[in-house]
Amino acid sequence: MRLARILAVVAVLGGGAVGIVGHAPVYLPTLPVGAPPLPEGPTRVFGYATLADPLVRLVVVGRPVNSESAALPDWRRVGRDLAPDPGALTTGRVFEVSPEGLRRLDRYERAGYRYSRTKKTLADGTQAWVYGLLSPRTAD
What we know:
InterPro entries: AIG2-like_dom, GGCT-like, GGCT-like_sf. The protein is an alpha+beta fold. The chain has one domain: Hypothetical upf0131 protein ytfp, CATH 3.10.490. It is built from four helices and five strands, in the order H-H-E-H-E-E-H-E-E. A hairpin with a 5-residue loop joins strand 4 and strand 5. The longest helix has 11 residues, at 2-12. Residues 6-26 have low confidence and may be disordered.
């Protein structure tokens, strides 16, 4: 149903919405010095909160990003974060992005400042980048 709404909005806007979104990164903060390095080729990301939403991925990555159901074993979702929990299973979406798409995700998640980006093994045995909150900050 959500995908149908997105497609309806794109259709109403004449299909130009994707182009506009793809060229409007001004809402993304710059990456901090501590941001993790980017991989050289396409990479997989596991989203369990806002990144599980196709509209958020469209806006942040700048293009539609297909995803599929995935699960992260031994981690439990706690609000916008994950906590280790043996036996738990966090469900979400896994999707592939280019290095530029990952850079945009890092900017959105404020990687190195608000969130860390680490590789974790999903329930199907594949690996994907996962964002997790860093220690609480006193100033934003």
